[in-house]
Every structure is written in structure tokens, then in C-alpha cells.
Amino acid sequence: MKQKQARPEERRIGQSQAFVLAHGFRKVGAYWALVGADNSLRLFAEVTADADRPDVRPKDAYQTLLSSIVPGWTVRILQIFWPDPGPRDAFQKQAETWPTDGKGEGTKLLHDALLLHIREAPLPFIRRTVIEFVYPGTEDALAWWEGIQGNLLNFGLKTQPLTPENIQELARWVLNPRLDI
Asked: 58: part of which helix (H) or strand (E)?
């Protein structure tokens, strides 16, 4: 019995998000880039306000950043709500040290209920800002990427290039956000 050949359009099994099809990571200069499914190189950096500068001007910084892009380049500014366990964990550690001995059973019960609530309550979220740059492979593009750190610092913003582990964490969070944690 002769098997029927599938037409090319029938061989498609499904689609997946682009990061699943990524080909890993590659160094571009001193930075790590995600190699996309289309072999594009994507550089990432997180942007934070400099706590020591009272004159932070993100609007001016983003205007400078976007006006310096060469036509044909792709830059994305991602603002992501990210779980931040730090404040909750710090409060829990502090609350666990509160003395409850000799204060009555009601106080002990309230203390236990507070600790349970801290453990079970959803995590607070922070907003993280990440710049994604699709590196076109030219020296002037790499110079631009290296220069944005200094340009944004002039406006009170610090940038931190992401490592492969940070990029993977970012991709997982963007594609599978768990807002219930």
C-alpha cells in the first residue's frame, strides 16, 4: 500500500514563540546577544534610574535614544511588571524575630496569622524597563549600542547589559507571566 505524501502546508505542526526557536547566544563585542529564529542577533539592556541623581529625565533620555536610531534599525523599549520578593521576604524575616513570649495567646495567634498571610500573599511587583536592539551586524550599530550607556547616563539613567541567564529569565517572564505568585 502506497503512503500518501503530505503537502508542504500540511506538514506544519504548529507555532511557538520566537524565543523557543532561538538558536542560543552569541557574543557581539563585549555583549551577549540572543540568536533569533531568523538568525537575527538581539541585544538587551535593563534601564534603571540612578538613585543618586535627583534630576532623572527619562523622557529626554528616550527622545535622545530614539532620535539617534538609523533608519532600518529595530529598537524596542519593554516595560514589564516583574515580581519582587525582596520587600516581602525582608518584612517576613523581621516579623519572625518579634517576641511573642509572655504576651498572651491572642498575640501569639495574631503573630502566627500575620506570618501565614505574609507567606501566602501574592508578591509585590516592580516595573522593569528593558531595551531590545536587533543588531544589524555593522560597526556603527555596535558603536551606537556601546554609546547608549553614556548617553542615557547624562539623563540620570543607568543601563546594565543582560547576560544569557537574564535574557532567558526575561523571555520566560514575558511569554509565561504568573501574576498569581
From this structure: helix 58-67
Q: How many angstroms separate the first and last alpha carbons of the chain?
A: 55
- DSSP count for the chain of H helices, then E strands: 5, 6
DSSP H helical ranges for 32-153: 58-67, 86-96, 105-120, 139-153
Angle separating helix axes 139-153 and 58-67, nearest 10 degrees: 160
- Judged by DSSP in three states, 3 sits in coil
Q: Would you give per-residue pLDDT tens digits along the chain (181 residues)?
A: 555 555 555 544 444 444 455 788 999 999 999 998 888 899 999 999 887 888 888 899 989 998 999 999 999 888 887 777 777 888 888 888 888 777 778 888 888 888 888 888 777 777 789 999 999 999 999 999 999 988 999 999 999 999 999 998 888 777 665 555 4
pTM comes to 0.68
